[in-house]
Amino acid sequence: MTDIPVPKPPARRPKWARRSGFLALFILILSGAIYFALPPVATWQIESQLGKLGAKSVQVGGLSINPATGQIELENFKSVGPDGEDILVGKARLRISLADIALRQITISELSVSDADIDIRRDAKGLWSVGGFPMAFAATETPAEPSAPWQLKADNIAIDNSQITLNLGPALQKAIVEKLRIDRLSTLDPAKPASVSLSVMTSGGQVKFDGTALPFAEQPSAELSLNVAALNLAAFKDLIATGRIKDISGVAAIQGKALAGIGNDSGIALSFDGKASLATTRVRTTLFEVNAKDLAWDGNARAGLPGTGAAIDALPTMDIKGTASASDFAFLNRISKVSLSATSASFDLTKSGVTLQQDPKNAGSTKIRSEVAARLTNAKFDQPESGLTVAPEQLDLTGQIELTLPPQTAAFSAKLSGVIDAKALSGALKPAGIDRLDARTFRVTYKDALINLAANGRISGEVTGSLGLTGVALEAPKLGVSAAAVSVDSTANRISFGQTEAGGMKLSLAGGLTATGVSSQSTDKRWSIAQKTAVWTGTIAIDPTAGNSPAGGLSLSGDIELSNFQAILAADDPFRLDLKTASAAGIAITPSGSSVKKASISGLSTSGSTDTSTLPRIGLKSLLVTDIKADKDGGLDIESLRALGLSGRLVRDAEGQIALPTMPDAKNTGTKSPVPSPAPADKADTIRIGSAVLSDGKLEFVDSSVTPPFLIETSRFQASLRDFDTAKPETNASLDVLLGLGQFGRVQIDGSVKPDLEKTTADLGVGFKNIELFKFNAYIRPAIKHTIRQGRADGDIALKLTDSKIDAKTLLTISRLKVTPAPTRKDGRIVESGPPIETALGLIQDSKGIIKLSIPITGSLEDPKFNLNDAIGQAIGGAMQKTLLTAVKIAFPLGAVVAIVDSVGAPKISIKPIEFTAGSSALSPALKGRIAEIAAYLKKKPKEAPSMCGPATESDLAALKKITPKANRETAIALATARIAAVRDELVSAHSIPAARVFVCAPEFVEAAGAVPSVTVDLKN
């Protein structure tokens, strides 16, 4: 056999050194083909040529060559490369055109390899080697003489049952090439794709693909259809778990079309269009851990793997679009322990997808950008260190995210914008005392939100956006409250958060917040509150380091407005408070104290649960308070307070107790307890009031502990208190009070008080005028055994209080006093009247029926003492020196109004009764004419002081029952009282008769059938 000279192969171009590992198999086959196509000295040539490449040893078990056909067969080939890795080939057959070799062209019509074992390695510098030989097969220096490159043309390449070992440093993977077929492989036409079909059995499962490749193009590439039925990722743990990825498991299935190409830096560009799924997935990185029962993805992905010189943990450049879904999904941040889970999740990345690339401004940093629409069902977000838990049944997220991953660290920073919608949300924030926070719907709109996770796991961030919730429910047992709201909305809010060194979460919310349909109640059901709207503008902050209790770390600053506010104290007779509006401006609440620049309310009212309730009824048109300060020790400072239109009603029950709101006992014993008062302290809390003014007030007091029940009304109530400061108990605070008592009575108090809450010290002047005494029969009758029918009191009291001790002197004037024996008791016995009181009154009255007394008062506020003996004795002594009776002269006729009556032989002037329609107190024009005539007479007799009386009759009661079936005698007496008041008001208001001249009587019910509903006007003559 004639030897065929073998030309020395020229030096390879440097670009061959940049070929990547995915073409290593092609290069290996071609290298073998070149050296196998030799004459009978081929064995020596193989050994010598591989030796030039650095082979430590070369063994050829068997070699046969047929020069006529160009067929070469090889058995049991083994070479050991420079780094100790080897290449084993059990059998190989090659059919080559020997004639083309002279033309520096290798033409292969058949190449088959079986039972081969090849090692492929990538070192720390990113350089590849095959079977121990570097991918640069020849020297890269410029050859001494230029020569034409070798060309390759190959078809019908087949590799069966061969093993490839992939060595990437710590990672070592073996794969069996079950079947490889290559056709149309040629360097003559590098743009013409070669066909490839491959079936590989890896340690994790079988991988199949077929397609085309351009291995000899300027930038080699391949396009393959990929089919992976079930690939166990745990088998590739040493290959995948590098850099940030620490562990991986799961079963993958992939179907689709893949594209791969090599860049100028030996980096690999990859793309994939198709579907992928993972079952029982677990991925653990330096930062997080992800678990899922099933993961599925349908779309396309583009990736660029780092090339020569890249850091070992450098992340690939990626661009991913498509849709994804997951079931039983769980995410855990391994540093902060923040977790997110969901029974199912879906992600839509079809718009702009996810991009991952190196940050050009920060070497080694990676940026991830995404625009995603996601939905999670039965989701749960948990941050154990802060106690924050959020669990919506459905969570929808639409938005953009930009994530920055610094090199060699578990930290990250994120910038987000978008919208989050949640349904049936439940959660908790236990450091703030909130054990449960639910919402029917939840929406957050945010823009340029910043979130940072430090390497030590502490998370912080800032979010600007709006918040909307409906169907809100809150439970905070440590704070003793639960609450609900129809809706909560906020706009242009800024939320900042960050973890403390102890792991707690600091939160701050700045902006506006509007709540509608708000309701709350105490945990023990003692009270409840409801309001139509609450509008907050300001900042709410939670700092767990600022206080020991959940509420201790809460601080607020801003303004609030409430409308249609209602509060209820729960009891057998619930006590209700209503407010039309309330507002507070300049609020500042911190753990050390609180202040409010201005607070106001309008339309306040309190009442019991029914119209017959005896609980206090209080009304207030408006209240304005400025510059309020309260410290943590209970001190209170108010610069000014103004109350307008105060009205109230207090009731004392039959047992003598003032009816006050009560609540069920805290231990639920069924007993009632009054609204708790502050416990006494070692040192009294300080209170300062710059000025407090009350105007246009009206109060009513009912006492059911006496018979008949006592009722008194005050009107035109006004009061002021100035310069009251308990921190300066030696100073004087001024006090002024003015009120009307009854219809024409008046009480005035003025003077000063010492601002000492322990002992009362005051210097006050008290004056009262036009006090109708019959209204106080319930208190007077038990003492004098008589009923006052008529009488008026005026007086002055000089009151001095020193350490709660009384030193007072009362000057009392009683006018036109008339009494009658007390009525019979229910058992029929007459009350003992004692000595004839009429005689005593006659002795102490002057000729005008006036009694003047001076009464000293001593004792204490708890036990005042009165001494009337000297006062009455002095009055009687003076009365004996005066004439008790005077004659009455009539200066002119009284017309039809006045009748001369001589029932006891002495002339007496009497005005005809003013008769009313039964059941009515209305003044007809005729009655007003009668009253005008009476007024004309009284104006001519300025010293005349008429008294007015009038009965309640059976005819009145009958008429009232037609309108109100439940009407009784008390109703009829109230009607008679209204008639007397109507006549008196007409005299005073329409005809300017001084109220002090007119006396009224307490009406009685007259059972006589013929009694006429009327008002009689008696003259003192």
Could you tell me how far the N terminus lies from the C terminus, measured between alpha carbons in angstroms? 173 Å
List low-pLDDT spans: 1-41, 137-141, 666-671, 677-683, 876-908
Q: Give a short account of the largest sheet.
A: 42 strands, mixed
Gyration radius over CA: 53 Å
Tally the helices: what do you get? 10
| Mean pLDDT score | 79
> Helix/strand-derived class?
mainly beta
Bin the strand percentage: over 45%
Helix content: 10-25%
Overall geometric form: rod-shaped
Number of domains: 5
How many beta strands in the DSSP annotation?
Answer: 52
Tell me what the structure shows.
The protein has 5 domains: 14-139 and 148-202, no CATH class; 327-543 and 554-570, no CATH class; 573-666 and 686-742, no CATH class; 759-824 and 833-886, no CATH class; 898-1018, OmpA-like domain (60s Ribosomal Protein L30, Chain: A). A hairpin with a 7-residue loop joins strand 34 and strand 35. Helix 6 crosses helix 7, helix 8 crosses helix 10 and helix 9 (954-963) crosses helix 10. The strands form 5 sheets. It has a 42-stranded mixed sheet that branches. A 4-stranded mixed sheet has the order 47-52-48-50. It starts with 23 loop residues before the first helix and ends with a strand. It is 11% helix and 55% strand. The protein has 1021 residues and is mainly β. The protein contains 10 helices and 52 strands. It is rod-shaped and about 165 Å long. 26% of the residues are buried.
